[in-house]
Amino acid sequence: NGKLERVVRHFDHLHDVTVTLSVEKLLQKAEATLHCASNKTIHADAHAADMYAAIDALADKLDRQVKKLKEKLTDHHRDDARAARYA
Questions:
Q1: Are 7 and 55 within 8 A, CB to CB?
Q2: Burial letters for 20-53: b for 16+ Cβ neighbours within 10 Å, e otherwise?
């Protein structure tokens, strides 16, 4: 729960989050799917020998993807405003 708080802090327009933790032989696996307000879906997974390490890696991946999506959305709106101003 606490590991994914930074993802929500960077992007709070999340509708649904599904997290799956599993063990495959000696490998710990963490997966997550986020459904955002902009009809975008973000999926990430991570593997590690330790479940805590897998969750940390998953949180890092999700955080990077959420930041990238947020930048994309804010850049898009800025371009629309600029185009409307010069039209």
A1: no
A2: eeeeeeeebbbbbebebeeeeebebebebeeeee
Contact by Cβ (8 Å): 9, 66: no
Give the residue from 9, 71, 64 showing the smallest Cα distance to 32: 64
Q: What is the pLDDT along the chain (87 residues), one digit of tens a residue?
A: 577 777 777 676 777 888 999 998 889 999 999 888 778 888 999 999 999 999 999 999 998 998 888 888 776 556 566 666 666
